[in-house]
Amino acid sequence: xxxxxxxxxxxxxxxxSCGIILKSIQKLMPTSKATIALDTGLDVQLVDDAIxxxxxxxxxxxxxxxxIVRLYxxxxxxxxxxxxxxxxxxxxxxxxxINIQDSVNSTNEYLLERSGICSIHxxxxxxxxxxxxxxxxxxxxxAGAFENIMLSIGWEFxxxxxxxxxxxxxVAVMVVHSLTRMTxxxxxxxxPNDVLWENRKIAGILVEIRNSTVVVGVGINCRLSxxxxxxxxxxxxxxxxxxxxxxxxxxxxxxxxxxxxxxxALFFREGLMPFKDEWMDFHAYHGRNMRAGDQEITGVALGIxxxxxxxxxxxxxxxxxxxxxxxxxxx
Length: 331
Fold this sequence. Notes:
It contains ten helices and 15 strands. The chain is an alpha+beta fold. It has three domains: about 5-70, Winged helix-like DNA-binding domain superfamily/Winged helix DNA-binding domain (Arc Repressor Mutant, subunit A, Orthogonal Bundle), CATH 1.10.10.10; about 80-280, BirA Bifunctional Protein, domain 2, CATH 3.30.930; about 285-330, SH3 type barrels. β7 (about 190) and β8 (about 195) form a beta hairpin. The longest helix has 22 residues, at about 250-270.
């Protein structure tokens, strides 16, 4: 089955067939494919392909030998209309530039592929499933379909700010704002592109630049399966551990888009400095012994400098900037 077979059966140009079908299943359950087709107005073959796709990507769907469809856990697909309504209260133009896809290779790649054809400035792609999601340093982004946030936004910066090295740090602050506003919990940041809750990763950021266009990808763990957790190469947590995120995922997506739109405009006017103090306040490992960079340098974490480099104080009291690689506490 090709992914394109189940791509968007557009309603108002944006909603996807899988989301429509999921809503129908939960409203009518137990039900049949024919009844779903009648309820949604979709072709029976499209319903069949979509159910197969959702099963393949891990949704707890069952189609028994009598053709009855059941869903064994509440799944609420993203509501594009609600996401747009939230964003429109901030900016109608930004609201009009949001699209949701059932499945893409990656949300960053979706925008990057279009950047050579047309302007992607402020264009947002949200995916319910990524077949080849990417994190930093070419790691795979692990997130179950229809239960997490996988979102990218494009931004054309031209000559406003030439140094975008601190952008992932600024975006981490934006993500913390969104998560805190929704959950009233405290979150931390880890250089250069992670957001933590109680020292476990809850969100990641991937910034990619092509010519004068940047694409910012954000992934937030809303609900992870046990197999997802085991596939992640560091301690991870999801929002469902401490917050009932399932009915609020669309609200989180809308608020995140607002935060990114405002924050990116500020960053490309003024750079990292408006975000630096907050990043330092959120820094999870300030004053801790850390191992950092590709050369495995060890020292005490002092935070970041004005360009976003990670600062380590060595045993001989020298302070050195680290520009690339991971940082992790020394056990």
